[in-house]
Structure formats: structure tokens, C-alpha cells
């Protein structure tokens, strides 16, 4: 397929693609985490169904999921901290370690890999001076590899602070980082 055909296909796909929902607003009610988790549990017929939203609330409060967060979620849900941690460790959306002010996630699944995700990841690693899974010394950036963002027709997909960008080529990386540094 020619470059022009690729551009037309991508443009058409973007026009028909539904918009992404906005991230959940950060809680500003001042309500304790336990009470907010109880409110979420009340939305589900079974407590187990509320574990992922409860973990998200804890992550929003702490910025990541330290052991203390698993204890808090376990206390509020009635499950063990080990169970809560096992759920969190399965999903890419949960942070099990402290992260930088800006989190950059590069999809390296097969569809993105075939259109250059490896080169895009290497460009981020070179520009930031870190490897995937690390945070810069100044605490500004964390770089992470993820399995799939579901943008298989628009890759490589990169999420910056939970906002998808696609396609991201290696030559786009310096501009993305410059904008984040100047924000």
C-alpha cells in the first residue's frame, strides 16, 4: 500500500472512530477513600465486581498502589490485600511502583510493532535516557510498555498521561517531550 493510500485510510478511520471518553474526574469531595469505595460497592450486585473501581480510587488518591493502598482497599471491600494486589498486577492500568509526573506508555503489541512501535520506544528511551519500566532521575517522566490500547489500525499508539496519540513516529518524540517539559 502506498503512503498516500495509508494516509487516506488513516484519515477515514479517524473520521469514523468514536471519540474517547474523558478520564474520570479526580475526587474533590474530601470524602475518605473507605466511604468512596463503599459508594462504588453499592453500584454492583456483588462486591467482587467493585474491586477494579476501588483500586482505581486508591490509585488516584496515592498516585500509585503502595502496600498501604492494598490494605485500604481490602478493608473497604472485605477481600485480602493479596487478592487486591493480584487483581492490580494483572492490569496495565494499575501502577505498582511510583511514577513520574508524566507517564508515557508505548503499545508494543503485534499491530503496533509491525508499524514501528519498537523504533518509537527506542526514541523515547534515547531522548529520556532511561529504559522502559524506569523513571527519569528528576521524577518528570516514566516510560512503560503496554500490551494493547485497541488502536490497532492507528499504530503505533502512545498514551501520555492517559491521553492517546496515534500514530506516533520516532521523529514525533522530541516534540512530545518538549511540550510536556514546557507545560
What does this molecule look like?
It is built from eight helices and four strands. It has a four-stranded mixed beta sheet with strand order 2-1-3-4, covered by helices on one side. Helix 2 crosses helix 4, helix 3 packs antiparallel against helix 4 and helix 4 packs across helix 5. The longest helix is centred in the first third of the chain and has 14 residues.
Structure in a nutshell:
The protein has helices at residues 3-16, 33-41, 51-62, 67-77, 81-90, 110-114, 117-128, 173-182, and strands at 102-107, 141-146, 158-160, 163-165.
Outline the secondary-structure elements.
Layout: H1 3-16, H2 33-41, H3 51-62, H4 67-77, H5 81-90, E1 102-107, H6 110-114, H7 117-128, E2 141-146, E3 158-160, E4 163-165, H8 173-182
Parallel strand pairs: 1-2
Antiparallel strand pairs: 1-3, 3-4
Helix pairs in contact: 2-3, 2-4, 3-4, 4-5
Amino acid at each position: 500500500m502506498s503512503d498516500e493510500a495509508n494516509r487516506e485510510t488513516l484519515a477515514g478511520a479517524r473520521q469514523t472512530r468514536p471519540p474517547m471518553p474523558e478520564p474520570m474526574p479526580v475526587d474533590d469531595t474530601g470524602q475518605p477513600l473507605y466511604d468512596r469505595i463503599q459508594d462504588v460497592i453499592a453500584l454492583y450486585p456483588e462486591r467482587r465486581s467493585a474491586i477494579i473501581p476501588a483500586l482505581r480510587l486508591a490509585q488516584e488518591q496515592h498516585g500509585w498502589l503502595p502496600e498501604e493502598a492494598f490494605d485500604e482497599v481490602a478493608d473497604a471491600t472485605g477481600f485480602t490485600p493479596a487478592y487486591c494486589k493480584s487483581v492490580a498486577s494483572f492490569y496495565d492500568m494499575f501502577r505498582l511502583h511510583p511514577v513520574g509526573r508524566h507517564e508515557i506508555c508505548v503499545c508494543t503489541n503485534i499491530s503496533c510493532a509491525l508499524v514501528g512501535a519498537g523504533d518509537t520506544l527506542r526514541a523515547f528511551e534515547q531522548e529520556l535516557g532511561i529504559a522502559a519500566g524506569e523513571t527519569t532521575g528528576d521524577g518528570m517522566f516514566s516510560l512503560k510498555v503496554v500490551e494493547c490500547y485497541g488502536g490497532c489500525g492507528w499504530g503505533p499508539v502512545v498514551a501520555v498521561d492517559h491521553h492517546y496519540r496515534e500514530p506516533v513516529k520516532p521523529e514525533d518524540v522530541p516534540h512530545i517531550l518538549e511540550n510536556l517539559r514546557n507545560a
